[in-house]
Design brief:
It is a single chain. With 323 residues, this protein is mostly helical. The chain has one domain. It contains 13 helices and no strands. The protein has helices spanning 2-30, 35-54, 68-91, 94-101, 104-116, 122-139, 148-170, 176-198, 204-230, 233-236, 243-254, 261-281, 307-318. Helix 1 packs across helix 3 and helix 5 crosses helix 6 (122-139). The longest helix has 29 residues, at 2-30. It is globular.
Length: 323
């Protein structure tokens, strides 16, 4: 088991490194184009890969969701997350965006109470509060002016957490093709509607960068699937925090960014709180739904297929009928 967990952890580190490269491409494109345009072409490039993934679903059924209202809410949350996250990456230092997005596990813990019926005891509540203090350290209200980028990152963390909790609620009953397709279709339609107002011609190299972004999103998801198959969720989930290292490196080398002390301290507090929640959830008696452990990717943006949908399908196949 130790060797298996090691392999899973290494695969997860590779996956999140690829996700970080994906986000660096988003930031590069964000300097020239509106999030709506980047997302539209990103979805367009992702569709062929998504169709190949959907061909794995051999069940005889239509595309109507079994939980239409939850599916609609998750789809809306994914679209909001995408626009907000892409804007935040374009306008803020990478490390600062990650430090705020890392608050998602804290928000997932809170949202799991009304949506999943999760019971959160005092220790996890303390971890949530400490983590939110860490976010305030990063934002430094009163010392620095909060920009639209900061607000966008906070919105992305909140809406991404909501989308993740909804997947945890309906994932075992909803078909993976529905979970994969609806957010991407919504992005394609909505971003396409906004495109005439923000469109700027894209040279071939920028279109290639969008294609690279789409491919990286899919590749990272596939590697992360292998990681979760190889190791335990309690080992794999914390590997997401390695993205702060890549953000720091890319920020310095590619975008001439520097990391201030407050961002480092705040990120450390948020990561520590998130790790504690993962540890508590990994103990079977502490969490019935393990919503944070089941959040397998960065916040869903609806621009590429997310592995949570595919792994939910695997879980359903592995669950004995009648259980």
């Amino acid at each position: 088991m130790a060797k298996t967990n090691l392999n899973g952890a290494l695969l997860a580190l590779a996956a999140f490194a690829i996700f970080a490269v994906h986000d660096a491409v988003v930031k590069t494109l964000g300097g020239s184009y509106a999030p709506f345009q980047i997302m539209f072409f990103g979805v367009m490039f992702s569709f062929p890969l998504t169709i190949l993934m959907m061909m794995r679903d051999t069940s005889l059924a239509n595309l109507r969701p079994r939980h239409p209202w939850w599916t609609a809410l998750r789809t809306g949350a994914a679209v909001i997350t995408g626009v907000s996250a892409f804007y935040a990456f374009a306008t803020l230092p990478l490390a600062q965006v990650y430090a705020i997005l890392f608050a998602s596990p804290l928000l997932i813990t809170v949202l799991s109470i009304p949506i999943l019926g999760e019971k959160v005891r005092v220790r996890r509540w303390i971890a949530v509060l400490v983590g939110l203090i860490g976010v305030l350290v990063v934002l430094r209200p009163g010392q620095t002016e909060l920009s639209l980028g900061h607000i966008a990152a906070l919105v992305a963390a909140c809406s991404g957490a909501l989308a993740s909790v909804i997947v945890r609620k309906i994932g075992r009953e909803e078909r993976s093709v529905v979970l994969l397709l609806y957010p991407m279709m919504a992005n394609f339609v909505l971003m396409g509607a906004a495109l005439p107002f923000v469109y700027r011609p894209m040279p071939l190299e920028h279109l290639g960068a969008v294609g690279l972004m789409a491919g990286l999103g899919v590749l990272a998801g596939l590697v992360l699937i292998k990681a979760y198959r190889a190791g335990e969720a309690a080992i794999i989930a914390p590997m997401q925090y390695s993205q702060i290292i890549w953000a720091s490196l890319f920020g310095v080398l590619l975008f001439n960014e520097s990391i201030d002390r407050e961002t480092l301290i705040g990120a450390a507090i948020v990561i520590g709180s998130g790790l504690y929640i993962v540890l508590r959830e990994s103990r079977g008696s502490s969490s019935e739904n393990t919503p944070v452990l089941r959040t397998r990717t960065p916040p869903e943006t609806g621009t590429a297929p997310r592995i949570s949908s595919l792994l939910s399908e695997e879980e359903k196949s592995a669950t004995p009928k009648g259980s």
